[in-house]
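Q: what sequence does this backbone want?
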């Protein structure tokens, strides 16, 4: 900034008019005083002097004029200095205001840049956390689907294996029943043949009885005894056969129960109700995990 002495008084007056109304009043009074001084000087030096004036009067008038002119010049210098000081102060105030404004703008831009950087970092952190959460949810859903698929396959295999074992047991049981029926048929056929044999013997005994008389009666009595003995033996055999049949049926039933129990222990057949309960527990755990994650995300956003 240049010094005030490098400017003229008129320049100072024109430059400072826009700063204060008081300076405009001073400018008007300065112009009036300058006009009066110029008129007085012109009247003193340009008008023809009267012949009656003495040299002393001329000197007195000249000294008064010089004193007035010097006072006016001094006053003009003081006013010019005041104007220059006012201009200097105004320029300094303007420069200070501009500097404060520039500092404020710089500080505001710095704070805004800092807030923007913090916001961007927060947004990046939230995006990364959201992406990580989505990956975890996707992985959990994928693992759950795979687990359900494995369980379904395991249940299907267990059911197929149990069905196959059951069919094998039924097949063996059917074969055993057929074998026992065949044995019963063979025994019935033997009993039928034995009955026919006894009937033939009875017929022969009756024929001998009629032919031989008393001897025949005795023989008939013996035959009756034999028949009773045969009938008793046959009843005993029949009861023994029935007892054996019941015992075999009990053994087959016990064997079937042992096989089914072994199949259940070996292949661990999954109960449908147990499977549904486990699935509901897994769903409840996943729901609680999602709620906790939402709460954590809300807290992060609130802190941001």
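A:
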């Amino acid at each position: 900034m240049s010094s005030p002495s490098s400017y003229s008084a008129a320049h100072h007056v024109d430059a400072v008019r826009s700063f204060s109304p008081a300076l405009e009043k001073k400018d008007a009074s300065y112009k009036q005083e300058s006009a009066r001084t110029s008129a007085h000087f012109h009247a003193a030096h340009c008008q023809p002097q009267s012949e009656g004036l003495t040299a002393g009067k001329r000197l007195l008038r000249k000294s008064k004029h010089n004193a007035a002119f010097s006072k006016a010049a001094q006053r003009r210098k003081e006013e010019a200095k005041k104007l220059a000081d006012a201009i200097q102060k105004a320029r300094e105030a303007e420069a200070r205001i501009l500097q404060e404004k520039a500092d404020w703008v710089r500080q505001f831009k710095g704070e805004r840049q800092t807030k923007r950087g913090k916001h961007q970092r927060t947004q990046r952190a939230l995006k990364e956390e959201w992406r990580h959460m989505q990956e975890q949810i996707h992985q959990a859903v994928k693992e759950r689907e795979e687990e359900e698929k494995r369980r379904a396959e395991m249940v299907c295999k267990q059911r197929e294996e149990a069905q196959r074992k059951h069919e094998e047991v039924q097949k063996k049981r059917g074969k055993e029943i057929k074998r026992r029926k065949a044995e019963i048929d063979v025994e019935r056929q033997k009993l039928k043949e034995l009955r026919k044999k006894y009937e033939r013997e009875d017929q022969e005994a009756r024929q001998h009885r009629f032919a031989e008389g008393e001897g025949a009666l005795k023989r008939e009595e013996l035959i009756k005894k034999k028949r009773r003995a045969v009938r008793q033996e046959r009843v005993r055999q029949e009861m023994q056969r029935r007892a054996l049949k019941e015992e075999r049926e009990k053994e087959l039933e016990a064997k079937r129960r042992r096989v089914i129990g072994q199949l259940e222990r070996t292949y661990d057949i999954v109960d449908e109700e147990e499977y549904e309960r486990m699935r509901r527990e897994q769903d409840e755990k996943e729901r609680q995990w999602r709620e906790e994650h939402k709460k954590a995300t809300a807290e992060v956003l609130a802190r941001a």
